[in-house]
Every structure is written in structure tokens, then in C-alpha cells.
Write a structure and sequence with these properties.
- By secondary structure, the chain is an all-alpha fold.
- The chain has one domain (2-282).
- The chain has helices at 2-21, 30-51, 63-91, 93-100, 103-114, 121-138, 150-173, 179-196, 208-236, 238-245, 248-259, 266-282.
């Protein structure tokens, strides 16, 4: 049960990270926010790796495994998130998130094909229930459902494929590299990649409060969440770890509802029931 528990903990960490950074994202460009989150995550990973004795292996790490984890970060976080942000502009948050979070289905297919992970009908049922719970909570806000753009929909689908591909690559890399070393290697490269595509010459107007929020968000989501997610991949495989961890939008909505003391809607209640059923089938 450790792998399943770590995957669910990942979802909670990602949800907390999302809720924490929500205010900063009102003022900061999403790509630049990711630059800062990955930068702070990089800084935090070095002392953790040093304390665990992993920095000694940094220059002796398996080259193929290192390439896999770096590609995973660039494709998943870098390209995937960028496509998602562009999709949000074209079709709105609700449609973009609903389509992008079909990624666990693609991950399951790729994991069976390339990682030779076992396929079970109950895993498929659990994955579908989790995706339905995310769709239900994403469609709660109907104000942006009037816009339809084929380009935007395809971008959201591309984001889902990028996330799935990134998960498979990092799973391949973890066969010959430790979780801590994988994060220590991939986050600085990711931060540099995102910085280069963030139009760095434009003025960066970010106040100290937002910097602190994004720093805490990066540590929660990328450092702690990154360690628990990669660990869950090693224990239970990509086909199960991904849908369990992908339930984060539902937990984020629940956390927002509690922290802001908002009314619990029927959609939120049904979404919570669906994600619980999904976890039951996956566990």
C-alpha cells in the first residue's frame, strides 16, 4: 500500500501547491511562475541530495537514465504545461483542464506497451472514474464554455500526450537512477528551458510576497510532490500512480472550498464520490 499512499500524497501536495500559487498566478505569467517554482525547487533539492549522499553520484550518474529524466521534465512540465496554458487562452480553463487530464488514459496505454506493465480492467475503471471526477469539477464554472476552438482543443490534447510521455520517460530513467538524483538533475534543466521560452528580456515585475508564495508552491509541489510521485512510480508503476496522483484538481477544489469557506456544491460532492471510487478500484 506504500506506493498507493505516496501517489495520493502526491495529489494532495500538488493540490496544496495549486491553491497556494493561485493568488500569485493572477499577477505572474504562468510560464514565468513555473520558471520560479522550478528554480526554487532546484535550490531545495541540492541540500536534500547532499544530506542523502546522492550528490556524490551526480557526475557518475547513468547517462541514458539522466537523458530520460531530463527529457521527461522538458516534455511533461515544459512543453506540456505550455500547451495547456495556450489552450486555456483559446478554449477556457474548464475545457482545457478536462481534456488535458485525460493523460492517465494515455499513460496507461503507453505503460502497457513500453514498460510492459500489467493491464487490469479495474485499473481502467479507476482511471476513467478519476477522469470523470476531474471533468465534473472542472466544468463547475460555466462562464468560459461559450468559446470553441479546434486549435485550443488540440493543444489541450497535446498537453495530455506530453504529460503521459514525460511520465513514461521518467519511469524508464528511474530504472537506473535514484529518485533524489533524478529530481536534482531535471529541475535545473527544466528551469533553464522554461526561462528561455518565457521571453526573458521583458520586464519581470514580481513582488516579494509572490516570490515567497511561488517558492513555497515549488517546494510543496515539485520537491515533496516530485519525490513522492517518482517513488510511487517505482512501487506501483505508471499505469496506477498517474491516475491516483492526477486526482489533484479535485483535492484542490476541496481545499479551496474549506480554506475560503465556500458553499459545498453538488458537483463538488459528486466529484469527491467519483474520485473516491476511482481510488478504490486503483488500490
Amino acid at each position: 500500500m506504500l506506493g498507493e499512499a505516496l501517489a495520493i500524497l502526491t495529489a494532495l501536495m500538488w493540490a496544496a501547491s495549486t491553491v497556494l500559487s493561485a493568488k500569485a498566478l493572477r499577477k505572474v505569467d504562468p510560464i514565468r511562475a513555473n520558471v520560479l517554482k522550478s528554480f526554487f525547487a532546484s535550490l531545495a533539492m541540492f541540500p536534500i541530495a547532499l544530506a542523502a549522499g546522492e550528490l556524490n553520484n551526480l557526475f557518475h550518474a547513468d547517462l541514458e537514465a539522466s537523458v530520460f529524466v531530463v527529457l521527461a521534465a522538458i516534455i511533461g512540465y515544459g512543453i506540456g504545461d505550455t500547451f495547456l496554458f495556450k489552450s486555456i487562452v483559446l478554449v477556457g480553463v474548464s475545457r482545457a483542464y478536462t481534456i488535458a487530464y485525460t493523460s492517465p488514459l494515455f499513460t496507461m496505454i503507453l505503460a502497457v506497451l513500453f514498460l510492459k506493465e500489467p493491464f487490469h480492467v479495474r485499473y481502467l475503471i479507476g482511471t476513467v472514474l478519476t477522469i470523470l471526477s476531474i471533468a465534473l469539477i472542472s466544468l463547475e464554472d460555466k462562464k468560459d464554455l461559450g468559446r470553441v476552438s479546434l486549435k485550443g482543443l488540440l493543444m489541450a490534447l497535446t498537453a495530455a500526450l506530453c504529460w503521459a510521455t514525460g511520465t513514461i520517460f521518467v519511469a524508464l530513467g528511474l530504472k537506473n537512477i535514484s529518485v533524489l538524483l533524478a529530481n536534482t538533475i531535471r529541475y535545473p534543466v527544466l528551469s533553464l528551458f522554461l526561462f528561455l521560452i518565457s521571453r526573458p528580456r521583458k520586464n519581470w515585475r514580481i513582488n516579494e510576497k509572490d516570490l515567497m508564495i511561488l517558492s513555497a508552491s515549488g517546494i510543496l509541489g515539485m520537491v515533496i510532490g516530485g519525490i513522492t510521485f517518482l517513488s510511487s512510480l517505482q512501487f506501483i508503476g505508471a499505469a496506477r500512480a498517474t491516475p491516483l496522483s492526477a486526482s489533484s484538481p479535485v483535492w484542490a477544489s476541496i481545499m479551496s472550498s474549506i480554506s475560503l469557506r465556500e458553499r459545498v456544491t453538488l458537483r463538488l460532492l459528486l466529484s469527491s464520490i467519483l474520485v473516491t471510487l476511482g481510488i478504490y478500484f486503483l488500490v
